[in-house]
Amino acid sequence: MRQTLITVIAFIACNSIFSQTENKNLFNRFYKNHLKVNVEKKDIQLFAEVNPQFFAFGGFGAGAGLEFSRVQAGFIYLYTKLTPTFRDAIFDNAKSLDVPKNTAAEIFANVFLRKDRKGLYVGSILSYDSYSVIDTLSKKKEDFNKTYLV
Question: Which terminus of the chain has a lower count of CB atoms within 10 Å, N or C?
Fold first, then answer.
């Protein structure tokens, strides 16, 4: 319950602080009045992100990438232990499994309809996931990987 509460609070805070609605909050007013002119003059921009929801579950997640014209492309890495809720969503009949390690490396690309890279976009993610799974009854451990394209 604590992890869910921390995730909800982090989501609401990030959504409020970094919302893309013009003049909705302090961050956007600062961006519009002080940074927007310089940002729009750059042809290529580098960005970095930290994903707070993974910290709430005892892991981490971060990414970096480039933005140019209407395109955004980058790389994300994450590591976390799967809670029973996420474990059951990913694996069938997994009640007797413990998943102490879930890592993923993802490459993504998005093409936005607007030049300012806001609003609707079409995107794809190529992900390479690695899992460690332990059967809680027999204590047998197995590692496996999966790759998927979304």
Answer: N
